């Protein structure tokens, strides 16, 4: 991906009202802990394949992703932390494919706060066609461009209608 395209990607995410953070691998656990603390999260939903080290610095109660969890139970969780399958610079889109480090689709749609970790540069592509090449169309794909939002007939923006009100994206440098 060109350096110019890459440099615009975080701004595109911010245009969609995602909150963008940058760190390296060593700072990731501390950043996640700080974001959960700042948010006042008492509980965090954890996909089964999420790297345990990502939550090592936090004392927040971890809630496992269980198939039998009801929407009401999921709504009681303060935050969710996931990885992603791919991110598209051109559109500021993050794609989840239900892999073990991302969990089932509903865990990212019910809690009000989603922290998504993106490895840079390996998970970032320039365009939608390049992103599609990396995805399996048989998997449950969730395409995210900022926090959930809609507009009414008067174009008043309302966030959190069918997903989290707050999306925080952590760009983890692999360099």
TrEMBL record:
InterPro entries registered for this protein in UniProt: FTHF_cligase-like_sf, LUD_dom, NagB/RpiA_transferase-like
Domain of life: Bacteria
Pfam families documented for this protein: LUD_dom (PF02589)
Residues in LUD domain copies: 63-172
Protein name: LUD domain-containing protein
Species name: Streptomyces viridochromogenes (strain DSM 40736 / JCM 4977 / BCRC 1201 / Tue 494)
Organism classification: Bacteria, Bacillati, Actinomycetota, Actinomycetes, Kitasatosporales
């Amino acid at each position: 991906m060109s350096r110019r395209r890459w440099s615009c990607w975080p701004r595109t995410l911010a245009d969609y009202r995602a909150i963008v953070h940058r760190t390296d691998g060593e700072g990731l656990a501390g950043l996640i802990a700080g974001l959960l603390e700042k948010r006042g999260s008492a509980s965090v939903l954890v996909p089964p394949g999420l790297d345990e080290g990502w939550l090592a610095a936090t004392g927040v109660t971890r809630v496992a992703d269980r198939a039998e969890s009801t929407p009401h139970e999921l709504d009681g969780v303060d935050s969710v932390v996931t990885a992603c399958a791919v991110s598209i610079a051109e559109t500021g889109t993050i794609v989840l494919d239900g892999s073990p480090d991302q969990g089932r689709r509903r865990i990212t749609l019910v809690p009000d706060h989603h922290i998504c970790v993106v490895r840079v540069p390996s998970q970032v592509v320039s365009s939608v066609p390049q992103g599609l090449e990396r995805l399996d169309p048989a998997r449950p794909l969730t395409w995210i461009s900022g926090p959930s939002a809609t507009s009414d007939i008067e174009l008043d923006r309302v966030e959190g209608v069918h997903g989290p009100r707050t999306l925080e994206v952590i760009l983890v440098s692999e360099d």
